[in-house]
Design brief:
Layout lengths: L14 E5 L4 H18 L3 H10 L11 E7 L2 E12 L2 E9 L8 H15 L4 E7 L3 H9 L3 E5 L4 E7 L15 E3 L4 E4 L1
Parallel strand pairs: 4-5
Antiparallel strand pairs: 1-2, 1-9, 2-3, 3-4, 5-7, 6-7, 8-9
Length: 189
């Protein structure tokens, strides 16, 4: 859980941290995601938060997954994660941007970083599901080159994308420029 060490002091805007599910930044992100889902789909934020936290933390940790959080002035403003479905396929989940920071490209940056990590880990395909009450998420995935591959349950849309060199062209940062944290994560500027 340690304190992030700053490598690139010239970096501007939100800083990227790769963290464990129990890291305080991840806990805050999951709490906000639970509130957002409860508003969109009903249910209590507490129950949704418990479901998010009950997912095995190892699913979103190296060597098979990742969980990242963008932090601006000490507060988590966006994030997301992925986990292994099979040796070639990763599933993106937990993508979220704080309401007051939406429409500023943060979700695109998160998606680009997730894709870069998936490529680095050898995944060849990314899958993601977005709900019918998340039109901005569906638009994000379409804009990033994801193709709709059918729907799951009545209120979910599934998307897929082949990964490779094209994934590195997304977003506003150069994926892979790493800094380290002490403890359970690493930071990127």
């Amino acid at each position: 859980m340690g304190t992030p060490s700053v490598i690139d002091t010239r970096a501007r805007g939100p800083r990227l941290y790769h963290v464990h599910q129990d890291h305080p930044l991840a806990v805050a992100l999951l709490a906000e995601l639970a509130i957002d889902h409860s508003i969109r789909y009903g249910g209590t934020a507490g129950a949704i938060h418990r479901r998010l936290r009950d997912c095995p933390a190892a699913d979103y940790s190296a060597p098979d997954g990742d969980l990242l959080v963008l932090v601006d002035h000490g507060d988590p403003v966006a994030g997301g994660g992925f986990r292994r479905l099979d040796p070639a396929t990763a599933e993106i989940q937990r993508v979220w941007t704080a309401r007051e920071h939406r429409r500023g490209g943060l979700a695109t940056r998160v998606l680009a970083e997730l894709e870069a990590e998936m490529v680095r880990l050898g995944y060849r395909e990314a899958l993601v599901t977005a709900g019918d009450r998340q039109p901005e998420a569906r638009a994000l995935y379409r804009a990033a080159g994801y193709a709709e591959v059918g729907s799951g349950a009545a209120c979910f849309f599934r998307f897929a994308k082949a990964l490779g060199a094209g994934a590195r062209q997304l977003g506003t940062t150069t994926p892979g420029a790493a800094a380290r944290t002490h403890g359970r994560g690493r930071r990127r500027g």
